[in-house]
Amino acid sequence: MMKAKAPLEGFEGNVVKIEYHSDLKEVQSDGQLARLLSDSCQHAPFDRLAWWQMLERHCGLSPLMAIARDADRAAILPLAGTSGHLSALANWYTFRFRPVISGEPAPLTALARDLARKAHRVTLSGIPDEDGSASLLQSAFRTSGWLVLRETCDTNHILPVAGRSYDEYIASRPGKLRTTLKRKTGKVETQVLTHFDEAVWAAYEDIYAESWKPEEGSPDFLRAFARAEGDAGRLRLGVARAGGEAIAAQMWTVEGGTAFIHKLAHREAARPLSPGSVLTAALFRHVIDVDKVDLVDFGTGDDPYKRDWMEQVRPRYRLDMFRPVTPRNWPVLAMAGMRRLAAIAKRG
């Protein structure tokens, strides 16, 4: 564990301690941090220590957990990277990235100030702002002397259920989708499991290999995550079959009133049966009528098919933070300035 040279004076006269952990076992052995990053306190997988441990173990990411805390409050920024350029401890499996905060006001400004000793640039992508995370980070880094560039980098499609039943929800979907479901549902058998099943998971991997999807980035990560979520009772593993053959599979998880849609795939040869749509409908029915979720989150990406199922879109932001007096940053800042001027000229 690496610590700041000295404690920093924080809000209301409290002394804020700054820590950096490259060994996640140190975080796990710290009672306060372990509780804050456990599933008893965090109700989305992307905010938990177990998520970052799996990213390190299966995806080759090297963590640097930046932590500021006093007796009552804490701010945790899970980072990765070397050579003075840090980024989010996240990858394509992460729906959104944000600091984990306990107590108010959060000691993020003290953490951002101390990070100047560790990095000349910090790039964080996939940050939400419906909870204020992007604005909070932007303010903390700017207050601490960083130059902050903010831009929209992705979209997040969601469905607020708003108390509807599945039948009420599906009645509001586009006519083309409802017609497809009416014509195809009887030709495909669906099953939704709430536990991890080796045979179904093997079928999912086989289906994925025959789908339109690119090669899976880390099958070991996904399997480990699915198994852990199954053990916790949060997994919703769907499979569609025709003639006894598995032709579509999806992985969802449910917690904290939200259903997260992580992975979906179908065999290209089975496309005429629309197994993906039929299976998606079965999972929507389960999470709405059985799990009683308040929100369905379709992750990132603006794929056209998501608009058939979801009703709202939330932006995801990238914050690129620079120490302005560091010469290594000047070429990047110059290019950013030129792009901004070109955009202004184009609008004019």
From TrEMBL:
<protein>
    <submittedName>
        <fullName>GNAT family N-acetyltransferase</fullName>
    </submittedName>
</protein>
<feature type="domain" description="N-acetyltransferase">
    <location>
        <begin position="191"/>
        <end position="326"/>
    </location>
</feature>
<dbReference type="InterPro" id="IPR000182">
    <property type="entry name" value="GNAT_dom"/>
</dbReference>
<dbReference type="InterPro" id="IPR016181">
    <property type="entry name" value="Acyl_CoA_acyltransferase"/>
</dbReference>
<dbReference type="Pfam" id="PF13480">
    <property type="entry name" value="Acetyltransf_6"/>
</dbReference>
<dbReference type="InterPro" id="IPR038740">
    <property type="entry name" value="BioF2-like_GNAT_dom"/>
</dbReference>
